[in-house]
Amino acid sequence: MESYYWIPTGMILIADLTIRIGLSIRVIMRKRAASVTLAWLVVILLLPFVGAFIYLLFGENRLGEHRAARAAADLEIITRWADSLRRRTRVEWEGVNPECQPLHRQIDTIIGIPTMPGNRLDLITSPADFFRSLIADIDNARSSCFLEFYIWNEGGMADQVVEALIRARRRGVTCRVLLDSIGSKDFFFSPTCQRMRRHGIKIIEALPAGLIRALFVRIDLRNHRKIVTIDGRIGYSGSQNLVDPRYFKQDQGVGQWIDTMVRVEGPVVEIMTASFIYDWLLESRKSMQELTES
To answer: Could you please report the per-residue DSSP string of 105-166?
Structure first.
């Protein structure tokens, strides 16, 4: 029996070599930036098995085949909308800073969204001012309130937003909230979330995460968008989560977060609304017809 001790060792070495060669070829075939490709090759070739494991966890943007299929189907709807948007939009560059034109061409080429002139932007540098403005706009909403955030944390003025949304629902306003599964994991299990749902506010998770799901998809890829659109005519975006900094992670000694938001009125709100709808269709697994009927 001792003469066969080398067989398991040989099989392990062959398996390791096969994995390294196979993954190295895959990394090269992905045709990413040379620095990225070289870095992954070093990890795979210098760390037996461990390097392969690290690459399988973080090396590719794995979000699941079914999700990719839904994204492709929904993208056709967005593409048709973007084409109509381009036909409806015309920019008179003589009255616009010419330095913006290269940025316009780049964005239009990459994502097919044209420049949308004629907007009013208000910079908001205080969390309290942001919450007061948002609550006032929700209280004046007539048809829809769409909110998308990475983190929703209970406490302080964030709870006042909840009350404003409940008031909006009582007026017949459609309210939808899309939150990242990991960033807002505590909120999903909170009494506040359940109460909002009881009042008819639709709340769903973006990029659901879990131990089993982690075996098949990249759970470190998160939705960090911070977008609000109200009635399709008012929008908010920036770095502020739906969090009152006075009540967020104060036990960790990090101090209050400092964020900035922009309140927008004008044609660009249509793009912000479309971004939310695309994400909602993807996560809710509903069609555009089902969305408009619900």
So the answer is: HHHHHHH--------EEEEE--HHHHHHHHHHHHHT-SSEEEEEES-B--STHHHHHHHHHH
Phi, psi of 162 (to 5 degrees): -60, -50
How do 144-149 and 174-180 pair as beta strands? parallel
Return the CATH class of domain 65-293. alpha beta
Predicted TM-score (pTM) of the model is 0.78
Domain ranges of the chain: 2-58, 65-293
- Give the number of other CB atoms < 10 A from CB of residue 170: 10
Q: Is the Cβ–Cβ distance between 230 and 145 less than 8 Å? A: yes
Q: Token pair for residue 209?
A: 């995460």
Could you give the CA distance from residue 185 to residue 225 in angstroms, rounded to a whole number?
A: 16
How does pLDDT run across 260-276, given as a tens digit for each residue?
A: 999 999 999 999 999 99
pLDDT tens per residue, range 136-156:
999 999 999 999 999 999 999
Which amino acid makes up residue 174? T
